[in-house]
Amino acid sequence: MQLKGKTAAITGGTAGIGRGIAEVFLAEGANVALFARNPEKGAKVIEELNVGDRAIFIAGDVMQQESVEDFVDQTVANFGTVDILVNNAGGAGDLAPLVDLTDEAFDEAMKWNIYATFWATRRALKPMIAQQSGRVINISSTEGKMGKPTFAPYTIAKHGINGMTKAVAQEVGTMGITVNSICPGLVLTDLILDNGPTTAEGLGMTFEEMIDMFSQESALKRPNTVEEVAAMALLLASDAGAGITGAALSVDGGTAPY
User: Fold this and answer.
1) What is the pLDDT of residue 199?
2) Is 115 a catalytic residue?
3) Which of the four pLDDT bands, split at 50, 70 and 90, describes residue 114?
């Protein structure tokens, strides 16, 4: 029960890494507010979690500032505060060589990743500063430390999230608040399985070839798992992670060079 009495707000919390983190946090005693677009799916996830009033779902669009800020506000209204913010929502969006990239595709990647993280963090820091404690955990990517052809918007956004992590950590470090990012490698979530074939096509290969390429880049020669990412999130959210801040921590099987 490392998080007993704590409240966590998780964007993109109904599937993949977000749901995995929610399940671990709930098992460790936290209250959890989940944020995603689909109300029907959200209601189903809350039913499946089966933890009574310790978990709530709030529907909204992570690409809309008012919606993101309302999510944080509703979390505070329901549970009294927010102790842990997990900025999990994000994605690669359309892939193309930079010379062919549209303004719309670039803007989408920034909103989905950078702006969503910025809006949620700015809002959540207010109650955290007031109580002089808190944890901000940003889900970045191994692409926040590297780069691949056609992945420019995603790579730019994830590098930006890592930079935001370092800057904000310096601002709130004396207030009992830590700010870190987790950089997963390939994790075979539903999002990857659904959109992966299109991504692979953009890279000029089959989906299976893409999975093998990402796997071979790592020391483990396999994708990472949701559980491995969630374990890192639990460390950062708990008292055991109090001395870690401003870090971009890889959970990528040894893919990134640092």
Assistant:
1) 78
2) no
3) very high
pLDDT of 53 reads 97
Beta-carbon-side half-sphere exposure of residue 180 (alpha carbons within 13 Å): 24
Question: What 3 state SS string does 187-209 have?
Answer: ECCHHHHHHHHHHHHHCCCCHHH
Please determine, for residue 256, whether its predicted confidence score (pLDDT) is greater than 80: yes
Residue with tokens 């601002």, as numbered in its chain: 171
Residue 105 near residue 93, CB atoms below 8 Å: yes
Structural domains of the chain ordered from first start = 7-185+225-251 (3.40.50.720), 187-223 (no CATH)
Among 112, 114, 127, which Cα is nearest to 37's? 112
The per-residue pLDDT of the chain, averaged, comes to 95
DSSP 3-state of 109: helix
Q: Please pick, among 71, 115, 151, 154, the residue that the annotation labels catalytic.
A: 154
Question: Is-contact 224 185, C-beta < 8 A?
Answer: yes
Q: Which residues pair with 31 in a beta bridge?
A: 7
- Residues 6+ away with beta carbon under 8 Å from 91: 112, 113, 154, 191, 195
